[in-house]
Amino acid sequence: MLLLFFFLLLFQEVYFKNLSKQKQKEVMEKNGNNHKLRVCVATCNRADYSKLAPIMFGIKAEPQFFELDVVVLGSHLIDDYGNTYRMIEQDDFDIHTRLHTIVRGEDEAAMVESVGLALVKLPDVLNRLKPDIMIVHGDRFDALALATSAALMNIRILHIEGGEVSGTIDDSIRHAITKLAHYHVCCTRSAEQHLIAMCEDHDRILLAGCPSYDKLLSAKNKDYMSIIRMWLGSKEMVRVMRKKGIEHHPNFRAVKHVPFDQFIQLVAHAGCMIGNSSCGVREVGAFGTPVINLGTRQTGRETGENVLHVRDADTQDKILHALQLQFGKQYPCSKIYGDGNAVPRILKFLKSIDLKEPLQKKFCFPPVKDNISQDIDHILETQSALAVDLGGTNLRVAIVSMKGEIVKKYTQLNPKTYEDRLELILKMCVEAASEAVNVNCRILGVGISTGGRVNPREGIVLHSTKLIQEWSSVDLRTPISDALHLPVWVDNDGNCAALAERKFGHGKGIENFVTLITGTGIGGGIIHQHELIHGSSFCAAELGHIVVSLDGPECLCGSQGCIEAYASGIALQREAKKLHDEDLLLVEGMSMKKEEVVSAAHLIQAAKLGNTKADSILRTAGTALGLGVVNILHTMNPSLVILSGVLASHYVNAVKDVINRQALSSVKTVDVVVSNLADPALLGAASLVLDYTTRRIY
After folding, report:
1. Measured between alpha carbons, how far is 18 from 515 in angstroms, rounded to an integer?
2. Residue 45: what pLDDT?
3. Domain UDP-N-acetylglucosamine 2-epimerase, which positions (predicted)?
């Protein structure tokens, strides 16, 4: 029995060893070959080593998958910065190559010369190493030289901490490295979105968090009392401190280098950290230590609530005041830059890299219209707009030329639900856009005219009329623009009618005029000093709801005595039904089928044929409309009033009569005309597009 037990143990050990080898083989085969992934990690300074070291330890711990080559250059090899290459050796990493690339100097020219020197020396190193992939960190000029060399030598690049924003030349360097890199490891969600916006392939972006956080989040509980209290400063900072004699103060200590393990203990237990290092806005957040960030170097970086910015730190009082506010506070730990699990994610990401994939990187540009070369067909194209009119009954889409010609029109019944309506709009717009090519029209954008209150800045229908159901808080711009890849404008149907008159009708060249739509409802638009008036809450020109009687009929808006309650098509239909129910509508020369619905048209016909009651109703409606126009004249003092819609010709004389009787003499000279536009709603929707593309202010 004991022998059988040992046999089972031996079998289990052999089985799992073979399983591990099989998994290793599968990963290697996925990488496109049977050799380990050769990774070159190049580190330039102690700051980037603190981020790269955790990854290097992880790579070193899995020799069955990776071969690690370490290249050291930059300030690591400078005595003024503490010869920090030694800490890499102390971490038991073999340094393959040391490159002296820093040209002495503190100015911009020295940085440029250092980049050039690195570019001269790196090709020989990379030719000897022949890595499968190079890992580059951050935004230093040394890193730019590394990425440039690797890209030109067809070596894959993994960039750590791309997509971040700090507000200095570092941004330009960081984003330049991003464009050279094939793979990206970012620390925050915002950085990931920035990379996507920069057209990088989403499949090659890993949101891992900052590698240094893997160590930071477990560091504070260690014993720190034995760590010497040091203060870290640059060469220039040390010079200033010596000049001021600060180095002799017992509470200050200037040092070239503090080992990272000791440094994080210092910041973890400090009363406050002051400076302009990215460490202050990134790593220190892991401990909740208060930070005072000086100047604009880190402007744009995401920060926790522990960071207080003193961006124009030109006076001592500001810094002292900030210190009084921050010193000794304890803030919650911030995990903006990581959750402590970055390295396992990065190693898994490295293992997933397929070396058989083409080396040439591809950019994921947003969809745009195909570029049309400058040829005769393009020149002869008619600049046009897609116009959409959302009415209570019908949904119409048209191709409208710059001259106001309706080239092609499509009409469907307006669906009752939001989903069906939006689906039909998209379907009709796509069909019209395709047809535009056949009729030699170049579509510049989409204009939408709809009932209700509209926010034209955002392209949102805020509140709808009762005639269009499920049409409140509707974003029209986004889905249509996304589907057609065209700019989209949206406005109220009354405003669109006024725009149509301004561009194509009686209002062309008129500085101040008002358009009144007389249809199913009553609406309108106001043009003042050549511009459309929207009002502070996009409710201007609700002309149908001007009250002309305190005890008049009830309006659909809930009020009483509105113009719309007297003069709209719905109001006339209501009165026609009353007469019909009392058998007082039909007169000689009129007939109605049994199933025919009574409408405003029957009332108008009856009045023309001598029905005095019908005529009285129409005169009352015309008077109500005229009184509303008088109120408009006394408020806006336009030089022109344009009556539009199917009822306009029936009201124009009544409106003029009321103006002559009721208006002040100073406004009686106003012109009142009937619109000569066949389709003001569609033409107005087109004007939203065409006015903008011809640089009219809208």
Report:
1. 84
2. 92
3. 65-222, 243-351
User: Where is 386: in which H helix or E strand?
Assistant: strand 382-390
In the CATH scheme, what architecture does the domain 35-209+347-351 have? 3-Layer(aba) Sandwich (3.40)
Q: Which CATH number fits domain 507-676: 1.10.3720.10, 3.40.50.300, 3.30.420.40, 1.20.1050.10?
A: 3.30.420.40
Nearest of 346, 397, 357, 453 to residue 56 by alpha carbon: 346
Tokens coding 349: 């990401």
Residues 531, 498: Cα–Cα separation, whole Å:
10
Q: How many helices (H) and strands (E) does the chain have?
A: 23, 25
Please report, for the chain, the start and end positions of each structural domain, with discontinuous segments joined by +.
35-209+347-351, 218-325, 375-505+691-697, 507-676
Cα dist from 217 to 61, 138, 347, 426, whole Å: 21, 21, 19, 51
Task: Return the half-sphere exposure (C-beta side, CA atoms, 13 A cut-off) of residue 106.
Answer: 6
Task: Quote the radius of gyration of the chain (alpha carbons, Å).
Answer: 38
pLDDT of residue 231: 38
> Is 48 among the catalytic positions?
no
Residue-wise burial string across 397-416, b where 16 or more C-beta atoms lie within 10 A, e elsewhere: bbbbbbebebbbebeeebbe
Residues composing the chain: 698
For residue range 485-494, list pLDDT tens digits in order. Answer: 899 999 999 9
Highest mean pLDDT among 19-28, 233-242, 307-316: 307-316
Helix, strand, or coil (residue 222): coil
- Looking at domain 375-505+691-697, its CATH superfamily turns out to be ATPase, nucleotide binding domain (3.30.420.40)
Q: Could you give the CA distance from residue 470 to residue 497 in angstroms, rounded to a whole number?
A: 23
325 sits in the region (left: phi over 0; alpha: psi -120 to 50; else beta) called: alpha
263 versus 25: the higher-pLDDT residue is 263
Cα–Cα distance measured from residue 47 to residue 43, given in angstroms and rounded to the nearest whole number = 9
3-state secondary structure 547-583: ECCCCCCECCCCCECEHHHHHCHHHHHHHHHHHHHCC
Q: What is the pLDDT of residues 95-108, one digit of tens each?
A: 999 999 999 876 88
**Which of 214, 493, 679, 691 is labelled catalytic?**
493
Q: DSSP alpha helices (H): ranges in 381-468?
A: 418-438
pTM of the predicted model as reported, rounded to 2 decimal places: 0.49
Cβ–Cβ contacts within 10 Å for residue 205, how many?
Answer: 20
Question: 101 near 117, Cβ under 8 Å?
Answer: yes
What is the mean predicted confidence (pLDDT) over 385-392? 89
Same fold, 35-209+347-351 and 507-676: no
Q: What share of the chain is helix, strand, coil (3-state, %, to 5)?
A: 45, 20, 40
Give me the amino acid identity at 326. Answer: Q
- Residue 404's region, left for phi above 0, alpha for psi from -120 to 50, else beta, is left
- For the cut 90, the answer to whether the pLDDT of residue 166 exceeds it is no
**Residue 414 CA from chain centroid, whole number:** 31
